[in-house]
What does this fold into?
Amino acid sequence: MHRTKAVTLTALALTILFAPPDAGAGGTAAPQPIAEIVTFRLMPGTEEAAFLSAAKATAAPVAAQPGFLRRSLSRDETGLWTDYVEWADMPSAGAAAQAVMQLPEFAPFAAAIDPASMVMRHAPVLWQMGD
It folds into this structure.
């Protein structure tokens, strides 16, 4: 009997923890932040320092897009890069993707990426910590 009660309380706690921010307040949830996760490799011969400089040049135009929350860029030991961007919602992510590709500041960054290696996906942010 105690085990069933503990499982029920744990399930209830997890439901509350992972509920959308305004669930239950007026019946509609607030828009959920979206993670844009892009993995890729650089074009052969691209120097890391030059690529990082090109990436940094995209900071202001990306941050100026409506719905932008945060961005990070990482590279693992195999040379696989991850550009991780959080947006306020999916419409913001979609609009920004179209807008930044038209900006001249974005061209050197995009040109350094091997298009055959690029994979882009979007996922709702369910939980995060720190800032």
Summary: The first strand starts at residue 34 and ends at 40. The first helix runs from residue 2 to 17.
